[in-house]
Amino acid sequence: MQYYAGGTSFNSPHAGPHGRDCFCISGPKHIAQSVDWSNEEHQRCIAACLVKATYIMEEDRPKCRVYDMGLAPPWWQSFHFELRDRVSSVPYSSTAPAGCQRHPSAPNYVYALRGTMPRHPKSAHDLYNDIKVFLSDLPCCRRTQKVRQAVANMLIRKGTERCVLWLAGHSLGASLALDVGRDMAEQHQAYLPTFLFNPPNVSPMPALNLLNPSEVAKKDVFTGSYLVKAALGATVMRSYCTRMEKLFQRLSPWVPELYVNERDIICQGFIDYFEQRQKVEERIGGLGRAAMKLSYRDMLSSLIGSSKEQPHLLPSARLWKNSNTTFGTHDLMQWWRPDSDLKLSCRKFIYPGA
Do you know which InterPro entries this protein is assigned to (predicted)? Predict the structure, then answer.
């Protein structure tokens, strides 16, 4: 099938300046003809493509590229998805090809959330949400609340038993998807498959990494910090520590997929949090387990009557690290490339005792 945008065939080599947005040029050709929904690589690539479509739709609109004349539709139609009602995220529903049954691992719906678009006419809204991410206030934003409500309504309407619903987001959108996924797990015991591409993490670790510390030095820094947190959690911050323990127990069955590039300073904090907490736990045992759910910022907020939780404090996750910078460090396009183009490593982290 051919798709057309502004009279230019998508399978034409002359796609003009929009080549990166043309599915037939930039999309994942290795799965365009055959999708294995049980394959984790294919799941990653499709989730990234659906998020990519949300960016392109924002570009299509001011350029009057609408409906099938736009560049966005092939990014979801190629995988037998239909665009549903738009909220602050973009929900898609999957349809099986003619004569085929829907694969049991395929989602019924996917909520895809884009990141910041600095050149967008309404970029101020994105920048406002970026500031909220930095201040750990994203749950209070209207955009977050609208997506939470939309996802909750979908689960209530369709039922968690019969509805396979994915969340996916890139950069700022990954922060939104992370917040919504946490809320669904905590409030509704709905553990949604969640694909987080380059999720931001406000952390001092990128600055520390610029000093090129040895692994021993980093381990000592984290161990000392964890010992202080454990001591505070056992004394003056005991009520906060108890609340976080209960939260971790509720969230522990949820295992989001975190896709990060080792050189991306925006999300390096996730790498250090999970890898160093594992090393500290192996080093000091129960104290490390007690401290991994605590944050200095949250403890300070708790003292002044607030109840924030840092989004990187996750009991469980699968951390996918890409050490290849060929396709950029924070670019979404790296995540629909085949495994053979990336230098991927994966490790699953589970909260002890969960």
Answer: AB_hydrolase_fold
